[in-house]
């Protein structure tokens, strides 16, 4: 199963319990940064910190340990470094997000181990090849429709909703056809047509 934007801990746990070999894209904030820390002045992101599942803590790029310091009733967890070590770190100004100068914190939940496993799973060449097939399925169309402004149905009832969605899809398909004609993908004799002023 290929999914995107669904890397919540509860979803990963459900996949695991159901025995589903899922391919879930890593959330934007947790992807390994394309640029190394020493190559520019970028801010440190969560992916720059290594999670130690056995000891339930994070390690920063300078090898400081960020232990668990707070756990909420909803399962949210906060890990934080030592303020003295943070202040002496070369990355402090690029790492700490606190305006008061507090030590760096990492926020996650009780499923960080599963999240890291999925991250390593998706880094494999085989996984990348499988995930490429997602581009050929229907889900991107739903994203395009949503980005076009459709956020929910204005009617109730299965038949009415089906009718409204048919209109939404028809409008989406018309946009696709017009774009294809404008760019010469279909009816190349009409390619490069100039848009009429309103």
Automatic annotation (TrEMBL):
Pfam families found in the cross-reference section: DDE_Tnp_1_6
Task: Give the InterPro entries listed for this entry.
Answer: Tnp_DDE_dom (IPR025668)
Task: Give every Transposase DDE domain span.
Answer: 60-178
Q: What is this protein called?
A: Transposase DDE domain-containing protein
What is the source species? Candidatus Venteria ishoeyi
């Amino acid at each position: 199963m290929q999914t995107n934007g669904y890397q919540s801990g509860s979803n990963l746990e459900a996949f695991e319990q159901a025995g589903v070999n899922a391919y879930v894209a890593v959330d934007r904030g947790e992807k390994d940064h394309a640029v190394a820390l020493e190559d520019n002045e970028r801010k440190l992101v969560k992916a720059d910190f290594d999670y130690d599942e056995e000891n339930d803590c994070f390690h920063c790029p300078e090898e400081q340990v960020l232990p668990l310091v707070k756990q909420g009733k909803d399962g949210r967890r906060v890990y934080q470094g030592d303020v003295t070590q943070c202040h002496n770190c070369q990355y402090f100004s690029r790492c700490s997000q606190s305006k008061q100068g507090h030590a760096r914190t990492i926020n996650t939940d009780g499923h960080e181990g599963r999240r890291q496993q999925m991250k390593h799973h998706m880094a494999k060449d085989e996984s990348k090849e499988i995930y490429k097939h997602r581009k050929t399925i229907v889900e991107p169309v739903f994203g395009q429709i949503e980005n076009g402004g459709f956020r929910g149905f204005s009617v109730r009832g299965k038949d009415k909703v089906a009718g409204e969605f048919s209109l939404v899809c028809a409008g989406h398909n018309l946009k696709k056809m017009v774009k294809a004609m404008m760019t010469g993908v279909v009816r190349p004799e009409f390619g490069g047509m100039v848009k009429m002023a309103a």
